[in-house]
């Protein structure tokens, strides 16, 4: 492969993502950050300089497995020390597999502050995708609050608890419109935006040629929102999920949760003198009224130059689904299956597991502080990066408690917790090399009766097979798992009051977080860490672990040697 080098400066800038001026975290003066386009097998070098005045920064490459480079995963307090203001750090890793990915901040709530961008990997020269297309477009979905992330973080960890609320705007490629809607005339209680929209919040219009086949890459880096995505009048053929090929299936819309990526194919075979809407409606949580979907335009070339504000009226806005249509959500999720192909080898799961871990997801009230916990432990990260503490055996950097692999038989997942209290700490599960792990993510009722939330779970360092979803409490006797054609993914939804089962093989030494991708939930403790064959982690470059206890160890090492 090729080596692709980038020089990035991360800084706060004044910006109007949804026409309201705020501070965003930009890269090289851009929001969202620049798109990386590479080919499978390429090496990516990102020289990242922290131009924030008073806070550290890291960037995580979401969906990239970091084979042999666990230190480049970009997770503060896990894979590396946060990069200090003024410092530069070099990320150096291989993008081994074609697919649709993205990158984002992974320190505090820097993703919600706008630190993200797209990362597209094409097949290597000479290799072929199992589908054909003429051209492609890239869509990055996110959500946006007017309140600063610092205020959000403090509110979430305060007593009394201050919830951040629903986002002010849904952004498509970093652009939204607050206080009006491009589709105002179609939305009850909404007003149409006027002609003079600020340049920074003008929708990115996708201009396409008629009678062609397009690949649309869609990634969601939302902080909170689950979205239903569609392209008016155009059916979409699903071909890829999280960097893995899936069975081709036609859909009118797709449900995309935070951390998911998809590719769909569309044919530009509609009447070319009309514009068509691209829409992203909030689902899974009660949306605000009036509805504020993310909107932009698919525009057939050649068309009038200002398609946004006059032309779209001629085609209707896609219909919003019911926000609480979980039946529809489950039926969409179950349509995603691995591609069966004679041309490509799509890895199949081992037929049995060596170790099964059940992770109960609860919402807790710890003396007035609202937290999320996994098997009764709410994640608090240590000051020394776990990769360092584990590799060098620094016991002071670790929680000595061995985390639970199941939860009590009498726990009722349909009811609020009887004892709402939980513990805080670092739940580190240690795995030997080369074994098959099953994880059952088990949802439960939150503190309020008759309520359970959606949580998209994301694993670093791996793809996993999604073996199935079910209602209520998982039971090994009666819960059906798909071992025939389960899709490989790195992100998977957990439905309210239900369970999700995944399987993976521990073939990638590293220290990998497994967490809810909803950023306020992770901030409130919703995650665990998988320490995988740590004894096989090779040496890490200097600069990765020069903080906390590892700084002293490395220093002592260099003095004695
Ligand atoms: Cu995209 Cu740990 O996250
Ligand atoms: Cu969550």
UniProtKB/TrEMBL annotation:
Q: Does the keyword DNA repair apply?
A: no
What residues does the Plastocyanin-like domain cover? Answer: 10-122, 136-301, 419-533
Keywords in alphabetical order:
Copper, Disulfide bond, Membrane, Metal-binding, Oxidoreductase, Repeat, Secreted, Signal, Transmembrane, Transmembrane helix
Gene3D superfamilies hit by this protein: Cupredoxins - blue copper proteins (2.60.40.420)
CDD domains reported in the protein's UniProt record: CuRO_1_AAO (cd13845), CuRO_3_AAO (cd13893)
A GO molecular function assigned to this protein is: copper ion binding
Q: Which InterPro entries match?
A: Cu-oxidase-like_N, Cu-oxidase_2nd, Cu-oxidase_C, Cu-oxidase_fam, Cu_oxidase_CS, Cu_oxidase_Cu_BS, Cupredoxin, CuRO_1_AAO
**Where does the protein end up?**
Secreted
> Which cofactors, if any, are listed as required?
Cu cation
- Which superkingdom heads the taxonomic lineage of this protein's source? Eukaryota
**What Pfam families does its record include?**
Cu-oxidase, Cu-oxidase_2, Cu-oxidase_3
EC numbers for this chain:
1.10.3.3
How is this protein annotated for GO cellular component? extracellular region; plasmodesma
Which reactions is this enzyme annotated as catalysing? 4 L-ascorbate + O2 = 4 monodehydro-L-ascorbate radical + 2 H2O
**Record-stated family:** Belongs to the multicopper oxidase family.
* NCBIfam families found in the cross-reference section: ascorbase
Q: Assembly and partners? A: Dimer.
Name of the protein in its database record: L-ascorbate oxidase
Name the species this protein comes from: Papaver nudicaule (Iceland poppy)
